[in-house]
């Protein structure tokens, strides 16, 4: 299936010119000479589109939620294409470096960096979609089209950030409920509408997470996600630098494969495990700040258990009782060592960020109008008694 999108009117004349020249014509810049940047972008976009089969009907095979999705959905097409590109690109060091940079930002101060990172992610996704469509529809001036798409979506997100968080929360919550909602399908016959109610609850919960509960949730989510990106990014970069050891990813292994090995569980199972850990940790810390050690332990627990599962299955003589992702094999040392690094980074940065969150909450309480009124009343009582 070829996805058709409306091309901005600014490039309608350029589109007609390039189409008339034919698919074999070289990509030319504004001065009529071959544009090196556009040629490189076209080659990259061509690889991105070819992963999904070009003009043939696109098949979504690698996504873990394929069984509950539609092969014809544009979202599944884009997600599958991006996933395959991450696995197949020859610039794995660039992908790993980007993952490391984002991971460091999240571990430094996730709540403060979230707006910048989210805006950048939206711009990058818009540029990627424009790149894909430019290749499929044979549109020239790819770099200009990508810049326009990235700038437009980036500015829209920046100026309407709170609204974008409502949309993000609704979409994320709905997608999570949809991915974990297989249990509702058999019950629909007895309880009509149960599935859609489950999806609506997921969407509402997602909106609350990314609006009302955003700061406490990010203070727990950012260390865990940042730790994963940091550990996997460092591992792949060290391998790309030429160092070979059993405790690192195998040579020329893609960053996405190395990160997936650390997660252990795949698809909605990992989303449920780590998402539940983040939510419970945030709830425990919000209930009482003195329970910060318990919240940090809850965040690190599933990561440590994943590492222990690899170690236990390696030393066990019977591997039939081990989960599929922990069955002993040639590359078991990287998941075990990587998870321990991930857990250490998560625990340390979560402690720091939860402490920062507590200090900010205390400052807000001191500076609130109610607190100021209480202080004024107390001062007036002291003056009157004197």
TrEMBL record:
Signal peptide annotation: 1-20
Record keywords: Membrane, Signal, Transmembrane, Transmembrane helix
Transmembrane segments: 141-159, 189-210, 217-238, 258-282, 294-312, 332-352
Domain of life: Eukaryota
Name of the protein this chain belongs to: DUF4203 domain-containing protein
Organism, scientific name: Symbiodinium microadriaticum (Dinoflagellate)
